[in-house]
Structures are given as structure tokens and as C-alpha cells.
Here is the input.
Amino acid sequence: MSQMSTRLPPGLILCAATAGAVLAMAGCGKPSPPPEGPAPTSLAKADPLIEAVQPEPKVVRVIARYSQPDIAGDSIRAAARVARQIARAVQAGARDLPPGAEVITLDLYGVDVDKFGKRTPGRFFESDFHVEDLKAVDLKAKGPAGVLNAGFDLRIDHPGIDPINAWCMRYPHAGGEYCNMAGD
Here is the structure.
């Protein structure tokens, strides 16, 4: 068998290289987020972390629990998801939102771990959101943590200090307003 040398003209080599680069770049795009599915129809069923919804005059308290010890702000990241799902439920006309409700308070409970490894359940924070702000928030324009920035008040309990600080250091671009409230 004879071996034949195949030489391509320089213009064809450039064309093949350009096509390869275009194909390689097409696969490098930012992945689209997974679809969120249908909007929740009630606050109580908005997210699996929600344990209870307590309607009071003009205020609805939503209690969520993150059951694992926090690692680098993961509980706050989960709280952002809960807040987003609450906003989706409000925008979809949540059936368990009383007609006169003006404020939704999100209470996040988690597991505090001290320097000796002792685990203690406790409340991390409570954050208040105007119902009208949740109705108006553009969920497509805001990232996953964008709803936390729509809050108007944040009260941090001692177990929540480290998780919030860790999250704000890890995701400063996502939680700008929320982290400013935490610093006040």
C-alpha cells in the first residue's frame, strides 16, 4: 500500500479552523436555568422548607426550616429560594393570603453549630416584605436571590450571624441590598 500525502490549500484550512471555533463557542454559552414549573397556588405549599403559615391582621408569617447545619451560607441560599417561591405564589394569587395582608414575614430556622461541634436548632432571621413589592418584583430580571433584596426589614438572631456573613461574602453580587440590611 502506498501512503498518499494529502495537503489542503491554506484557505480551506482556515475555513475548517473557523468552523471548529464557532462550534466550540456554541457549546460554551451560559446554561439556561431549569424551568421552575407552575407557580405555587398557596404560601404553605410554595416550598418544601415551609413548615407553617400564620396569618395575622395585615401580616402573614411564613416559617421555614433548614434542617442541616449551615455551610458557607447555604441556609441563606435556601431562604432566597423560599422567598422567590413566596413571591411566585403571591403573583399567582395565593389562596391562603388574606385579602388585607400588607406584609409577609419570613422566619428562617436552622441549625447552629458552635466551635465545639454542638448543634443547636434556632431562628436565624426574620425578614419583612411588602405584599405589593412581591407582586411587582420582576422574577425574570432578578436572579435567584433577587427577592431577598426586595425586603424592607431584617432582624438577625445570634445563630444567623455567621450564615448571613458567609453568604454575603460568597455572593456579594446577588445579595447587595440584603447584605446592606444585615450590616445595619
Residues 15-32 have pLDDT under 50 and may be disordered. The beta strands are 50-56, 59-69, 103-113, 119-130, 153-156. The first helix runs from residue 10 to 26. The first strand starts at residue 50 and ends at 56.
